[in-house]
Amino acid sequence: MRILYLxxxxxxxxxxxxxxxxxxxxxxxxxxxxxxxxxxxxxxVDRYQALGATVHFAPLAPLRRDLSLTTAMxxxxxxxxxxxxxxxxxxxxxxxxHTNMEVLLEGGLAARSLGLPHVLHYRGNTLDRPKWVFDAxxxxxxxxxxxxxxxxxxxxxxxxxxxxxxxxxxxxxPIDIGRFAGAGRSAVVRASLGAGAGQRLIxxxxxxxxxxxxxxxxxxxxxxxxxxxxxRFVVVGTSEVEIERRYEQEMRALCGQLGLAxxxxxxxxxRDIPEVMAALDVFVLTSRHEGFGRVVAExxxxxxxxxxxxxxxxxxxxxxxxxxxxxxxxxxxDFAAHISRLLSDAEGAAAMGGRAAARALDFDAxxxxxxxxxxYEALLRLRARVPVQA
Length: 390
Hints:
By secondary structure, the chain is α/β, with parallel strands linked by helices. The chain folds into 2 domains: about 1-175 and about 365-380, Rossmann fold, CATH 3.40.50.2000; about 175-360, Glycogen Phosphorylase B (Rossmann fold). The protein has 17 helices and 13 strands. It has a 7-stranded parallel beta sheet with strand order 3-2-1-4-5-6-7, with helices on both faces. Strands 10-9-8-11-12-13 form a 6-stranded parallel beta sheet, with helices on both faces. The two termini are about 15 Å apart.
């Protein structure tokens, strides 16, 4: 079967792309011919091609939350994007269109015009405000999709609260479990993250975006640093757009204000995340409204003890207290208390990490891909699609 995948971004770090690239090897082995559509050339192109996917480019029109001129021109941009996707689907002789994030509506429009099944993958966060906007969007998403994958039960709640969950299936993001479980602990990697011999390393991984609430991580780090002289901290991630670049500058300034110079490393983007996770003693995610928390699942697969925000999907992954612990949102004191307890109880932290690794098997990419492929087959059996002309 030939599947056309639509991705809204073309940047170094992209959760939707990470998840799709984890899925594709197992799907390709099952006979899927993957055609990936990106908005522009970028660092993801070679990664998709290395897997065996064909990459196309189209002027995609992602939804925006601002009031810019680009947003005002959205209807025209959407029609242009839908026409381009329709043309690509015909050229690739696609059997199904899979929109890899909900910010793209053109996949559903193109699929409807061609009589193709359409799968929508909802990968966003759990914040569904303003209510009237999401009332309209959920109606549109469900109306233009034959099936909706939601990356957590927390995200599925956006549809359930509006009585629109009939087509919704919860499908946690896929992780290459083998890579994370097999990564060794390296003194060289730990040194590159700011930790020397005998020092304990507490880290977070993600984009430098305000929603990641790195201020809470840094304030918690300052509290932990005052209690544990051997503690070092690392922020792994990059800033690619203006709001992220401004936020990174703010966080670097905050680091100085908190007296953390020499204790915190801003490590930038890394491609060796399995080794990064193995290097940590505690993984922390302070994000707000997280829709899944891919890095949480990766840390769990690496058998790391984790501390997450008690909001959005991460508590669902760690089942608070069983596979990880959850701290109150935007509460540095609560995060610091949980981190300190894990640092002071090495045996308990290791046991929690072991339970987390067992839980992470549920996110193994081949298992997730099996469910995706089964859904494709079911939709293709149900839909008497319109033949696509060359």
